[in-house]
Prior knowledge:
By secondary structure, the protein is an alpha+beta fold. Helix 17 (552-583) packs antiparallel against helix 18 (587-609). The longest helix has 34 residues, at 2-35.
Amino acid sequence: MMNKGKKALRLALSLLLMLNFSIVVAAEAATTSRSGLSMTPSLSHVVNSNIPSQAGAPSAKPIEAATKALDKKSNGDESSAQERTTTPNESQFKSEFQDFITQSVGQTLPMFGYDLFRNAPNTFAPVDHIPVTPDYTIGPGDELLVHVWGQVEANDSVVVDRNGMINLPKVGQVSVVGVRYQNLQAHLKSAIGRMFKNFELDVSLGKLRSIQVFVVGQAARPGNYTVSSLSTLVNAVFASGGPSGKGSMRHIQLKRSGKVLTEFDMYDLLQKGDKSKDVQLLSGDVIYIPTVGAMAAITGSVNTPAIFELKDNETLAGLLSLAGGLTNVAAGQKVTVERIHEREMRKVAEFNLDKDGLAKPLQDGDLITVSSISARFDNAVTLRGNVASPGRHPWKEGLRISDVIPDKGALIIDAYWLKQNQASRKDVTSTASLRNEVKRSLAEVNWDYAVVERLNKNLTTSLIPFHLGKAIIDHDAQQNLLLQPGDTITIFSKEDIQVPIANRTKYVVLEGELAHAGVYQVVPGETLRQLVERAGGLSPEAYLVGSEFTREATREIQQKRLDDIVTKMEAEIQRTAIKRSTAALTKEDADTARVEAQSQEALLGKMRQVKASGRIVLEIPEYAVELKNLPDIALEDGDRLYVPSIPSTVSVMGTVYNQNAFVYKKGQTVSEYLDKAGGPTRDGDESEVYLIRADGLVFSKRQGSMFSSGSFSSRKAMPGDTIVVPEKLERYNLTKDLKDWSQIFYQFAIGVASLKTIGVF
């Protein structure tokens, strides 16, 4: 009984699987009949080609695949199961010859035309909603919409039966099989006219029949396809995924009743848009894609580098035409041909691009390389650098430097004129930047040195220097060099190559209490005192002691050193913080170390914001008012002198009770001004007080000896001075230290008592 139960259960499961499979097949058939042209194989193709089964028993794999397809359709997925299970992959479009060419040229050349089929199911829509062509042949399964009015009236939808007949009310059976659509209306009017007169008729096609065709040979997805009756050979080829990598693109055959009806060349469609050999399909047609024929590759300077299939007696001219011709930078004299010789070895040949060379036939496996033209100019010289119009100039016999650079105007760069044009606009001019614009409006030409670079016959390079000023301005024949084709002339500015100081143009800014403040060009060898004298000297209100003299080169050095100091301090603070946190024995010590580290980090942040001024202390004697007291310092480009007016205050800053600026009184000392500010506070470090003079000099209390500290306090203050009382950075914590020492003594006493107890003492 148990064995019988198992057999019954096994039989029931088998019947259930077969029932599910039948439902899927029915659903696919219904979908195919509704869709007209299926751009993928029919369900029979899926079952026959892609689902293996075991003889004698239904396979679980086809049933499972079909069930999944039905589930996806029930969830609203409009794409067919065939599309998902038979989409061609990249390997189907590759060939061994393509890999061979890749090894030769170092890049992968595409097989021409095959990319068109890789996404064909998503690119080409079904053809069941396009207008019917006049030569369409009526057949079984077509729906006719017949509308008659007049003596007789009818409005019927009839379907052509398997015998090619339709049944019209009041008329009877009418044969329409084989009638072309353009003749259908006349054919029906003649049939109805045998029984009725005085009527009009209109006929159109409704739903069209489906037909079955076969795609065989080297197709990406060979098989049996159910397509619309409007489909043509090209539609079916796209539905099958096109030729595989081993299939021909140029000899696709349509066979009907055992005969070749047409042979279609896909290249005609791709390159010329020619579909003249495309034929409408009938049920039972066979589309045969033979193996690919001879192939040749072309690379280099052509419009379409690719691997092409050759037809019989294809010439070099034909292959160049397939590749879209030469590009505009191709060398048009000859091409290189790599050829497989007698299937044993490879040889290289050259074909001239003349009448005879273009007529040479190609062989299977040829690789044609089209080189590009050389970058060399045959009759040109090049001008570059600090010039108005850098570029190439035509060379001619007897060409010299002055012919390429005719005058000084050719050396004014475009940036100068653009800046001049911009300066004329009121909305662009900024008074804050006028000083910089005046002093540096043009990169100056180095008139003493320019160079010609020349490639010699032995492929070595020579540099021929010349004096630009003598060549352009003086027309010195010795400096006005004779040029050769391919020469490169380079013009430098004084910033490109540093010239001697005496030859540099320098601009200095004079500001403040001077007779004629402004931007001045420095005469070679002129000093600061001489320039101020030339500018009219000092004004009556000038405070010469407080003069500020800044230099750009000094500022850069100061800023670099300041950055280095901050970097070193940061590293030192980090090391100290780590040591203190590691050595902390109590929470109090750890908190103290953390607070100190945070304060030091805040100090570093402030130091990073400090920017160097580039100020140079002139060390002018106190109460100096005459110009002769100004140092006779050599000037550099970008120097700035600011002479302030006589200040009337002395400032006291830092940890004092009243930070303020006090009226200067001649003869009053540092101590007296500190007293006016209330003196240092409890946190003020009285031993570190320092004085900053208006000229940048600094005097500190620490400079004096222990027994002469009064000399600093009795120093007389000058107008514009600043007295600074810094804060104590570290205060001695007596309570904490007493606590630590008491613990040490306590532990020491306990140790001594213990030793005495055990009899050591």
